[in-house]
Amino acid sequence: MGLLTFSLGGIHPPENKISAGKKIESPGLPEIVTIPLAQHLGAPSKVVVARGDTVKTGQIIAEANGFVSTNIHSSVTGKVLKVDLFPDSSGYRRQAVQIQVEEDDWVEGIDLSDTLVKDFDKSQDEIRKIILNSGIVGLGGATFPSHVKLMTPKGKTAEYLIINGVECEPYLTADHALMLEKHDELIVGVRILMKGLGVEKAIIGIENNKPDAIKIMEKASAEFDSIVVKPLKVQYPQGGEKQLVQALLKREVPSGGLPIDVGVVAFNVGTVYASYLAVQKNRPLLERVVTVTGKSVKKPSNFLTRVGTPVSYLIEKAGGLPEDTAKVINGGPMMGKALSRLDVPIVKGSSGILLLMEEEAYRKETQSCIRCTKCVTVCPMGLEPYLLMTQAEKAMYEEMEGEKVMDCIECGSCVYTCPSSRPLLDYIRLGKGELGKILRARKAV
Amino acid sequence: MSQIIIYTIITLVAIGAVAAIILYFVAQKFKVYEDPRIDQVEEALPAANCGGCGFAGCRNFAEALVKSDSFDGLNCPVGGNDTMASVASILGREAVESAPLVAVIRCNGTPEFRPRTNTYDGASSCAVEHSLHTGEGGCPHGCLGHGDCVDACDFDAIHMNPETELPEVIDDKCTACGACVRACPRDIIELRKKNKKDRKIFVSCINEEKGPIPKRNCSVVCIGCSACFKVCPHDAITMNNNLAYIDPVKCRLCRKCVVVCPTNAIHEIHFPPPKIVGVAKETETSKSKENETKQKN
Questions:
Q1: A300 touching B, CB under 8 A?
Q2: pLDDT digits (tens, 9 = 90+) for B132-174
Q3: How many CA atoms lie within 13 A of A400 on its CB side?
Q4: pLDDT at residue B281 greater than cutoff 60
Q5: Of B247, B251, B259, B260, nearest to B233 (Cα)?
Q6: Domains of chain B: which residue ranges?
Q7: CB proximity list for B84: less than 8 A, separation 6 or greater
Q8: Whose CB among A210, A329, B259, B270 lies 3.0–4.6 Å from A354's, allowing a Cys bridge?
Q9: Is the minimum CB–CB distance between B121 and chain A shorter than 8 Å?
Q10: Residues of chain A contacting residue B136, judged by C-beta atoms under 8 Å apart
């Protein structure tokens, strides 16, 4: 029997997992951290500290502003220098809190030990509350507030909890490293989330290119019948929520819907670990594993990085910026976005920093579409990227709604496969943004 | 043989006659009355179908003109006053004179003034680049230089200057249809009153941020110092959110503001070299002249 995978589209780019097997290490604390207020999907948090305040590590500096929003905690101890606009990864300036780092003095009541705490007696509501208060968001990249996912909407029931250990994005190894080192903690985290969600079954999906992680997770989960580890065939973008649900359960999430519509809720392994720390150790989400990698990087690493650490600091710790670096990407090569400056902070959603060399960094010259429909073949959502691009180019945004552009998961498979190197995703993203504005305006009326 | 031909002809004539009678009554029954003036007005319009009037095409605009009682808010920027006068004579109304407008680019971020800090490698479209990042220079408001406005122009009136990496408007060709204004994702194109000899004075920047950061990104930024506001004798300049704006109607083209601007953010175009200049500001004026000629070339 062949391994499980999703049925529609997909590609298999070179994996280039250079930093695989590297231990998770701490890069230390930078001198100044900048913590943006909009690190999650939904409303930006409301700042509750002011210039000159002294904050401790783990202290709340911004509170959730609405249901789809979350708390943000200080990742260091020090003095608030400014609450002002600072450039985010796109270069546009957004609200953020800048803190001068003095030391690392955590708020009282936080357990900093490494000992595994297996048992928990928290009720479902308590777990949800802790997840909300700890500022936990989906660490796979979408940064959707996790407490919202735990609240099953009325009329729908969750049947399965799916844990996403796929990490299909080339180069990145943050989740892999986490599974290798924190497997026991992860299993406790899975049990916590199962209780928080009220489900009896959990499936951990891991791609077959990480046999060590599959083995270790199988061993760790052996004593629980309700938790199953399933190896998956290597196929990009299997880490997409909808693709993973399809691969594991053969259930298709309807267009415009969420996995909960087919009785599933999915969490990334990073989120599971954060939930473990929050519930068992009372530690809010203020650090995450970030892969710093690239073919010319001296010391490819998996860093347990505090939120707000400048990208340039991490690159320095990974052996400095190689001379032939042409592009620095925030995220992986498929979905990440190139940075236009290096003083921007690591946020909750940053999974990696990828440095590309001169010879591999640039796109090829764009040529005319030759109607080969390779983009249609590889699209995991069954869309027609060539058509969507043309529509966005001609500013036919409303027509894109009928072509289901909002279902696009921006995986970049179409651009990867296009023999004419057309900037398909660039335009599709533009169309999504513009159509989103139209849809919001329509809703507001 | 000849009989068959005769019968055929008779039958066909009969069918034709019956069909003609039916069609005549049907046409009477379903007749849609259309004001004949619509055709006349459409004839008088430039037939550019540019959408500058706010309607989908010249036909729709003609319908609106005939239907409405006054010309309020209805103007064909392409045809200008002549066209509106002939439309008025067709409809037997009084023509309303409106000042002709021309597009101006409110950014002067050439590579010289706005150093490029990174290279953009994505799709060649201002809309796409605007949605991704601040641009090759640090300024989040400035021109991105991919020429979305050039593509939008139906009249060949706007071109990119490869040297300045900024678009340039050819005043004689510009019809002020506003297509470029709508195409620009950064909203830096403005339609302003056309003055004698195409002279213009405007603040060539839309930055509203205070402080040293905008200045670091671009040297010809409006820093909101209000120097022009204070010196203007005609109350034409207003300060909104740290940005100076020169009202094109009130402005009398005295050029006092151009001289006092510390960052040369105020542009004067198509003016002769100044005769009397303040001694201290002489160098700056000549510099701004230089910029202007550069932009023209």
A1: no
A2: 888 888 899 999 999 999 999 989 999 999 999 999 999 999 9
A3: 30
A4: no
A5: B251
A6: 36-91, 101-296
A7: B71, B75, B76, B95, B96, B98
A8: A329
A9: yes
A10: 340
Q: What is the pLDDT of residue B239?
A: 93
Q: Which of B121, B141, B146 to mutate to test the interface with A (most CBs of A within 10 A)?
A: B121
The parts of chain A modelled with pLDDT lower than 50 are 1
Beta bridge partners of residue A282, listed in sequence order: none
Q: How far apart are CA A5 and CA A244, in angstroms?
A: 8
Q: List pLDDT tens digits, range B2-51.
A: 899 999 999 999 999 999 999 999 999 998 888 889 999 999 999 888 88
The rounded mean pLDDT for chain A is: 93
Looking at domain A124-281, its CATH architecture is 3-Layer(aba) Sandwich (3.40)
Min Cα separation B117/chain A (Å): 8
Of the partner residues A91, A338, A427, the one whose CB lies closest to the CB of residue B128:
A427
pLDDT of residue A316: 94
Three-state secondary structure of B50-117: CCCCCCCCHHHHHHHHHHCCCCCCCCCCCCHHHHHHHHHHHHCCCCCCCCCEEEEECCCCCCCCCCCC
Residue of B nearest to A328 (CA): B118
SS3 A77: strand
| Strand residues in B112-207 grouped as ranges (E) | 158-161, 166-169, 189-193, 200-203
How many angstroms away from the CA of A417 is the closest CA of chain B?
Answer: 16
Tell me which chain B residues have a C-beta less than 8 angstroms from the C-beta of A366.
123-124
Contact criterion met (CB below 8 Å) for A392 and A428:
yes
What whole-number distance in Å separates Cα of residue B76 and Cα of residue B94?
A: 15
Architecture of domain B36-91: Orthogonal Bundle (1.10)
The Cα of A435 is separated from the nearest Cα of chain B by a number of Å equal to 13
**In Å, how far is A437's CA from the nearest CA of chain B?**
13
A327 in contact with B, Cβ within 8 Å: yes
User: So what CATH class is B101-296?
Assistant: alpha beta
Predicted pLDDT at B275 = 62
Asked whether residue B107 carries a pLDDT value surpassing 90, the answer given is yes
Band of pLDDT at residue B293, cut at 50, 70 and 90: very low
* pLDDT one-digit tens code per residue, B166-218: 999 999 999 888 899 999 999 999 999 888 888 889 999 999 988 788 998 99
Interchain contact, A340 vs B140, CB within 8 Å: no
Ranges of H-type helices in B95-173: 126-132, 148-152
Alpha-carbon distance B155 to B177, whole Å? 9
Non-local CB neighbours of B149 within 8 Å, separated by 6+ positions: B126, B158, B167, B179, B180, B183, B184, B189
- Subunit contact A338:B121, Cβ cutoff 8 A: yes
Q: Which amino acid is at A375?
A: C
Contacts (Cβ under 8 Å, ≥6 apart) of A287: A75, A304, A305, A306, A307
- Mean pLDDT to the nearest integer, B76-92: 87
Q: Is B101-296 the same fold as B36-91?
A: no
Contacts B124 to A, Cβ<8 Å: 366
Tokens 């105020």 correspond to B266
Please report, for chain A, the start and end positions of each structural domain, with discontinuous segments joined by +. Answer: 124-281, 374-444
Distance CA A9, CA B293 (A): 55
In angstroms, the Cα distances linking A38 to A45, A86, A145, A347 are 6, 12, 12, 9
